[in-house]
Design a protein that fits this description.
The structure is a single chain. With about 270 residues, the protein is an alpha/beta fold. It has nine helices and eight strands.
Length: about 270
């Protein structure tokens, strides 16, 4: 009997050791957008504990949704807990995160930078200040993170772009952009005004902590290089990385680790100051 009990206890201990502990949690919400008159799905990953926590907004690419980052960051709640950060992942549809001048029902700039930030700070134990708020994204979301942070530096203190479509103008026939801005030949002013690279003039050195990266084999590689060069010309400090890789989930799953380290350092520096 004693031997059987010992075997059972050993089996229980083994199972406990092999069972992953989910320290954080994931909420899936429907957040009201008054500007669009509809509810938007949002995934929020939270650390364990009372907080307050800094927040990282994660924007998906074209064709993605609120759950994209759950697939790219395995065990996203555990990572949130490990980093001591809240991750907020909104469904940005295929909006490019603009308030569209053509499609009046598409106001995702207002939703993410105002309505969603206000909702998150009201309902979760966050640090409600730009010094504890960052935004990054992949592809369309990389463009969105640059667009939103440059135009709302009162809201975000740090921003990143992974394989970002940071200049839309060479891609006028792609990704339904014309449905949001109008055809380029007829609405060139919209295309000039709504590309992230032309928003660099909105910021000065030190306004934002910036990290930008792109793979050598990515079709956005050249526009990212041009984005980097324009930041240099303006004297705006930033981290810029190029690595092997294409426009792939594998690349983004690796890239997000560097962005989170960058934001972690930024948040700690803000506290120290």
């Amino acid at each position: 009997m004693k031997g059987l009990f010992e075997k059972m206890w050993a089996a229980i201990v083994f199972l406990l050791l092999c069972t992953p502990v989910q320290a954080g949690k994931v909420d899936t919400l429907m957040v009201e957008s008054q500007s669009m008159g509809k509810r938007i799905e949002v995934v929020v990953a939270l650390p364990d504990g009372e907080g307050p926590w800094p927040v990282v907004y994660l924007l998906h690419g074209y064709g993605g949704n609120a759950h994209t980052w759950e697939g790219l960051i395995p065990g996203i709640a555990n990572v949130a807990d490990e980093k001591g950060m809240v991750f907020v992942c909104p469904d940005g549809a295929n909006s490019w995160y603009w308030d569209s001048p053509v499609e009046k029902g598409s106001r995702y700039e207002t939703f993410v930078a105002r309505e969603l930030v206000e909702y998150v700070d009201k309902h979760y134990p966050t640090i409600p200040d730009r010094s504890a708020r960052a935004i990054t994204g992949l592809s369309m979301g990389g463009h969105g993170a640059m667009w939103l942070s440059f135009r709302h530096k009162d809201c975000f203190g740090a921003a990143g772009s992974m394989s970002g479509g940071v200049d839309i103008r060479p891609f006028s026939n792609n990704w339904s952009i014309a449905s949001l801005l109008g055809e380029e030949e007829e609405h060139r002013e919209n295309w000039e005004a709504h590309t992230a690279i032309n928003q660099i003039e909105c910021i000065q050195d030190g306004d934002l902590a910036l990290i930008v990266d792109c793979g050598y084999d990515d079709f956005f590689f050249e526009v990212n290089n041009q984005f980097h060069q324009k930041l240099l010309e303006r004297g705006i400090g930033h981290d810029f990385y190029v690595r092997p890789g294409g426009h792939t989930a594998e690349y983004w799953s690796n890239s997000i680790r560097y962005h989170l380290l960058f934001f972690e350092s930024f948040f700690k520096q803000q506290v120290a100051e």
